[in-house]
């Protein structure tokens, strides 16, 4: 197999570990620290998880005496969308197992959770794992979005694990995947199966975080990759001086990616969905704010600029949120009838009759292409697929329309030449940054400690991430403490609560204090490509978000 020079060099990189995970692995143990509880719905969650709710927070510690490690078999599954660093989670897990006992086996389930249900797996050997160390992607065993949520599926999981003599499953996934992992852990414990479940927090969106999970892996690499691309476009805009670039960024449920990229690149406009919802801004309000900045820059002779837009923006705009909610309900309750309407004209007429008056008005004022996108196939939860909605094109059309009116009235004498972009897949499988390389290896290594200690229903947790790797701490956090109840398909179900951008937090405050200046002046920052070799302050730097949250703002 041929490798690029960079890939060859990355194979040589030896990930750094927190001090507590170095040394004799037989002297690494756990220290339970008190009980835990969820922020809300404590009574309901106690009833749903009687055997795992309220478990203690775990601190990974160094023991005075070594403990002999028995050989064990662990199954690992990659679940959901890709995120940079997944291969190093597996590498860290594999290395820890083999250090503890060379006879232990790591079984990789192929194609995500369906690999368990279909009993499709491979034993991961050193020869296999070594081909994927420090590289991007999930191609070592593949991923998938099959949900483990029914009793029948849980029984199959138990049977397959017993067949393969697996005593623990490590699920590398996001909030939904780890919610299902917590349910599976409770089920196994109820049946006294002797099989534990450990999760690893993954999602580039950054919305799986809390006091104990400071960041989900992949966020650092993805935002640095997007910021490089944004910086490149900013350099082009500053050179050509004739285009307004509207850039949509991944992040359906939260705007962490958009905020981080704004902190790194200083765009003229960056929309934060959570702020828009908090301030009850309408679509027209948003457009007029953008028009104001575009017009002011034009008066200064700057008929160009950069706009960052979070993927999920449209669901945070009050009138659009109401419209989408009504559409989701209508199309769920009348699926059979809707499928008999074969033309868009018939569909839109029926929709407008069934919607409330306000939502019908909003729907009818939207451009035809946006109306069509709102009626396409739903996601597995029955909701509008937000990533298919060209929000950036909608904003361009509306801004252009207002500017045309202003031009006809002599209020705008500049030019508006827009370009649209969507950065999504470009960041999901990039070579992981040194931060994600080290972080993911540590998460996997620590996941073994949790599993070998007989814990279940926990997420591997590495903390103190704004500091050098040696000062990172390790432990485990019960998944149930991160849960709340949300309505899914008409029923209240336990799910890990998504972490939204904190409008009172330091990252947003830093952005808010600078955006007025960024809006008018061209103070762009050009982060450049991710660096792997060179000064630590460049190669090992954490995200701006982590630096600010960790009170480490020297480099901002």
Write up this protein.
The protein is an alpha/beta fold and 556 residues long. It has 2 domains: 5-37 and 48-61 and 69-218 and 432-496, 3-Layer(aba) Sandwich (Rossmann fold); 220-427 and 505-549, Phosphofructokinase domain (Rossmann fold, 3-Layer(aba) Sandwich), CATH 3.40.50.460. It contains 21 helices and 16 strands. The chain has helices at residues 5-12, 42-48, 86-100, 114-117, 126-130, 151-163, 175-190, 219-240, 256-265, 273-278, 283-299, 318-333, 335-339, 344-354, 357-365, 368-374, 391-408, 434-452, 506-520, 536-539, 544-549; strands at 28-33, 57-62, 73-79, 105-109, 121-123, 143-144, 168-173, 196-201, 244-249, 269-270, 305-310, 418-423, 458-463, 473-478, 483-488, 491-496. Strands 1, 2, 3, 4, 5, 6, 7, 8, 13 and 14 form a 10-stranded mixed beta sheet that branches. Helix 8 (219-240) packs across helix 9 and helix 14 (344-354) runs antiparallel to helix 15. 48% of the residues are buried.
Strand and helix map with partners:
Elements: H1 5-12, E1 28-33, H2 42-48, E2 57-62, E3 73-79, H3 86-100, E4 105-109, H4 114-117, E5 121-123, H5 126-130, E6 143-144, H6 151-163, E7 168-173, H7 175-190, E8 196-201, H8 219-240, E9 244-249, H9 256-265, E10 269-270, H10 273-278, H11 283-299, E11 305-310, H12 318-333, H13 335-339, H14 344-354, H15 357-365, H16 368-374, H17 391-408, E12 418-423, H18 434-452, E13 458-463, E14 473-478, E15 483-488, E16 491-496, H19 506-520, H20 536-539, H21 544-549
Parallel strand pairs: 3-4, 3-6, 3-7, 7-8, 8-13, 9-11, 9-12, 10-11
Antiparallel strand pairs: 1-2, 2-14, 4-5, 13-14, 15-16
Helix pairs in contact: 3-18, 8-9, 9-19, 11-17, 12-15, 14-15
């Amino acid at each position: 197999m041929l490798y690029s020079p960079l890939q060859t060099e990355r194979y040589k990189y030896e990930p750094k570990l927190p001090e507590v995970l170095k040394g004799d692995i037989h002297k690494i143990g756990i220290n339970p620290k008190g009980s835990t509880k969820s922020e809300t719905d404590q009574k309901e969650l106690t009833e749903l998880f009687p055997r795992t709710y309220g478990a203690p927070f775990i601190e990974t510690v160094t023991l005075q005496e070594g403990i002999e490690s028995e050989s064990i078999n662990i199954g690992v599954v990659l679940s959901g969308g890709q995120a940079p660093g997944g291969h190093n989670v597996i590498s860290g897990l594999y290395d820890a197992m083999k250090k503890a006992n060379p006879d232990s086996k790591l079984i990789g389930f192929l194609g995500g959770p369906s690999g368990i249900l279909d009993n499709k797996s491979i034993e991961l050997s050193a020869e296999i794992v070594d081909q994927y160390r420090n590289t991007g992607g999930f191609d070592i065993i593949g991923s998938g979005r099959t949900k483990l949520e029914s009793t029948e599926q849980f029984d199959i999981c138990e049977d397959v694990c017993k067949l393969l003599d697996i005593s623990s499953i490590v699920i590398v996934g996001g909030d939904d995947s780890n919610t299902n992992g917590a349910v599976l852990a409770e089920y196994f414990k109820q049946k006294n199966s002797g099989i534990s479940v450990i999760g690893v927090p993954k999602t580039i969106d950054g919305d799986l975080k809390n006091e104990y999970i400071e960041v989900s892996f992949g966020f650092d690499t993805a935002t640095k990759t997007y910021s490089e691309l944004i910086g490149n476009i900013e350099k082009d805009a500053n050179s050509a001086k004739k285009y307004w670039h509207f850039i949509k960024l991944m992040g359906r449920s939260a705007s962490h990616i958009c905020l981080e990229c704004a902190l790194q690149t200083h765009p003229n406009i960056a929309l934060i969905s959570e702020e828009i919802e908090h301030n009850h801004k309408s679509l027209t309000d948003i457009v007029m704010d953008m028009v104001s900045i575009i017009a002011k820059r034009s008066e200064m002779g700057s008929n160009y600029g950069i706009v960052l837009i979070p993927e999920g923006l449209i669901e945070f705009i009050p009138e659009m949120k109401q419209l989408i909610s009504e559409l989701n309900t209508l199309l769920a309750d009348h699926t059979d009838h809707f499928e008999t309407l074969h033309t868009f004209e018939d569909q839109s007429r029926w929709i407008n009759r069934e919607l409330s008056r306000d939502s019908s008005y909003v729907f009818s004022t939207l451009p035809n292409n946006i109306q069509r996108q709102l009626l396409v196939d739903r996601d597995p939860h029955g909701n509008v697929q937000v990533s298919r909605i060209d929000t950036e094109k909608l904003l361009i059309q509306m801004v252009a329309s207002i500017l045309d009116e202003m031009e006809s009235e002599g209020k705008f004498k500049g030019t508006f030449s827009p370009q649209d972009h969507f950065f999504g897949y470009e960041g999901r499988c990039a070579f992981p940054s040194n931060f994600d390389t080290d972080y993911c290896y540590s998460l996997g290594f620590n996941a073994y400690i949790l599993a070998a200690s007989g814990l279940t229903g926990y997420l591997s947790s590495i903390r103190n991430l704004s500091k050098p790797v040696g000062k990172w701490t390790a432990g485990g956090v019960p998944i149930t403490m991160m849960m709340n109840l949300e309505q899914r398909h008409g029923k209240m179900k336990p799910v890990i609560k998504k972490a939204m951008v904190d409008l009172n937090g330091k990252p947003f405050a830093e952005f808010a204090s600078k955006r007025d200046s960024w809006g008018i002046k061209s103070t762009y920052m050009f982060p450049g490509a991710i660096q792997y070799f060179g000064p630590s302050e460049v190669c090992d730097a954490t995200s701006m978000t982590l630096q600010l949250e960790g009170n480490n703002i020297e480099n901002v």
